[in-house]
Amino acid sequence: MAPSRLLLAAPRGYCAGVDRAVETVERALEVADGEPVYVRKEIVHNRHVVDELARRGAIFVSSEDDVPPGATVVFSAHGVAPAVHTNAAARGLRVIDATCPLVTKVHSEARHFAGRGYTIILIGHEGHEEVEGTMGEAPEATRLVGSVEEVADLGDLGPETPLVYLTQTTLSVDETRDIIAALKARFPHIEAPKKEDICYATSNRQAAVKALVREVDLVLVIGSRNSSNSNRLVEVARDAGVASHLIEDESAIDEAWLEAVDTVGITSGASAPESLVRRVVDWFAAFGVTDVDELHAVHEDVAFNLPREIRRALPQVDGPRSSAR
User: Would you say the pTM of this structure is higher than 0.70?
Assistant: First the structure.
């Protein structure tokens, strides 16, 4: 039997940083006047978004070294290390930096504390592009920790070492809280950033899932496998004892998941467009589900200005973008 109800989490989907990054590429293509626009790595971690921008003409490359000298390149929302900016300048590239302003904040914190002689404990996932960019700000001064267990590996740091912790912006709020507690227990003198680094959208979407799981039997999270914040949403639901699966789109839904399920909760990661949610809802409609509602957990109204390179090219674009697309 088909489920009888869909409950959509709100907020879900695009955050302001992702919306800004995607529109940056769209606008760059508009003003390029036929010249190629390159994008270093994925502008955001969503296959559908990347494929759509590629269809519009964006050329995705793995490194700034793959961009012809003098060409235009957009840096992704995840941020890059200073060495990437230096290399791009040496190659004469026209850079449009679409780094999320909240990631830029963490970079600034890393420079600030490293300049004051601190050792930085960066809480994050090894290999993630955001972590690589942040560590690149002060590689000699930064230690990466990904779990409570890894705090034990910091035994060479003593009470005389000035310490501060920073975090990747897309982590699990609960897991990060546990790691911070372990750091404070081991290093009571460790300092914190003035304002937490996990971004508002990550926190809000996790809070929405925590509200959702009280009402549903299954949670489907729309997002790509390499999307950190999307994977965290699956973990939040499972930690609450509710079955959850990460899906790229409606084609990944397994009907076996729906057995004995009355209400399905649906949410989407911060890099997943709302069009994918609509497609999943349509799939369930074809399956016979007609009761669709939203569960509003957190009010969200954040927007960021486009990069100055785009604003200069399009002077009519003055105000910030809404994050709802």
Answer: yes
